[in-house]
Batch of 2 targets.
Target 1
Amino acid sequence: MCTKQPWFGLVCPRNVQLDELHWIAHITHKNPQHFPNPEKFDPTRFEGNGPAPYTFVPFGAGPRMCPGNEYARLAILVFMHNVVTNFGWEKLLHNEKIVSDPIPRPTQGLPIRLYRHHKIIT
Ligand code: HEM
């Protein structure tokens, strides 16, 4: 008998044979049990202690967790800092759909218009 686990969806004892088991982090991230109103953009979810262990897992978890985790977070932070401090930007398609197959992505590639702020902030 397999049991549902909040962080993995389904966990089975060793004697249960499954051909394949696919886990999708995106589905865990949209679980309202851990992330109330999951469609809402709400950065306050990450304040204080943040989400419970194994519920926010963009880099996986455990011994095979992504070893590029810290590097990727730093690179994204530096990129975002430079974009938001040096440029204003606006979405060109306001109703662009996001599809999950299984990674969420904007269907048209999220075209944006960038314009430089008058004063460059460094
Ligand atoms: C936003 C960027 C990235 C995301 C979201 C990401 C996500 C992931 C995820 C979900 C896994 C599987 C973890 C698991 O099985 O529990 C993984 C594995 C891995 N990632 Fe990343 N990753 C990113 C960037 C990078 C970078 C920059 C590097 C190297 C410089 C890297 C190297 C690896 C390697 C080598 C593995 C395999 C680890 C193993 O199987 O033991 N990743 N990554």
Target 2
Amino acid sequence: MSEPLVTLRDVVKRYDDFTAVKRMNLEIGAGEFVAIMGPSGCGKTTTLRMLAGLEAPTEGEVVIDGRVMNDVPVHERDTPLVWQSLALFPFLNARENVEFGLKMRAVAPGARRKKALEWLDRLGIAEFAERNVETLSGGQRQRVALARSLITEPRLLLLDEPLSALDAHLVIRMQGVLTRLQRELGITFVHVTHSQSEAFAMADRVVIMSRGEIAQVGAPRDIYRAPANRFVAEFVGRNNIIAGTVAPVGPGFGLLRVDTPLGPFDVVADDAPRPPGEAAVFVVGADRVEIGREPRPGAVPCTLISEEFIGSVVTLFLEAPDGTELKVQAQERALAALDAGSGGAFHLSWSPQEAHLLPPGA
Ligand SMILES: Nc1ncnc2c1ncn2[C@@H]1O[C@H](COP(=O)(O)OP(=O)(O)OP(=O)(O)O)[C@@H](O)[C@H]1O
């Protein structure tokens, strides 16, 4: 990571006797795109509001660009926050809304007008400059809000679910707009979202929070393929989580054997001490499971419970004889040959390389 622009050092936020953020430590590099995600109430917005100066930490330090910001009021900061409801001024047109930040900085009318038009153009909405914002569509208003936040050229832009009110096709377009802008401008983005696809599509690093704590920080691929604990494995979804105990005799070759109710499985060993009989949990991505009609050595026999279509990708939910639910994700075309609709037995398998061990006790 580049030099950190933002450092959260042992940050705690309490509301009376409820702790919304528990001793959080995080560094965000200059020019990084970081997404914060997690279930409702996990402390995402509280964290973002502390970065924006809308909340003061109860303990710890929020450092931005080398300066401790705990007590710096919002109007002395350069950390605009864009959120779902936008809070555009309804009595101003698009250009006037965008100009607002420069007006507050006493920039001359001609100069700020020119700059506002440049930003509206950059966001592809120059033609709406003189329109009242109330008459614009959701996506257009979202762009006005972004232009208004970016016109002061902040080093850090905070985004709180900015796309959650938009239609699915607009979300994809706005994701493109946001990532392009972020790369072109080199501004650090911290983006709070409920949406995994949004976070994984845009962010360099994703922070997963649970109950006021960071559960994992990493590149989207690492979070997806190598979850640090059961919470993350379940939260990112489409993972098969299989629990067992370390077998008395291992297969060697860097592999560990885990005895499970589905049978013994070999998985890639990690560095943790793994005495025989100790609990071991591993994760296999649903898209890494092979499914066939024929029994194969080591494959798990299953019956199909349900199917879910998302575009051309299908997820099959199956049940093993002991009641364990397993998921398989594949292209619809690849599954057509299996004739899933006719019922009957399926056999699932995966290679040891696709099985990711969770750390002991995680
Ligand atoms: N002003 C406040 N007073 C008391 N409790 C608060 C206050 N603000 C937030 N909380 C609590 O802190 C916890 C974290 O809230 P926060 O808004 O950060 O969650 P979130 O992860 O952003 O959730 P969501 O996804 O639902 O927006 C919640 O339990 C919330 O009720």
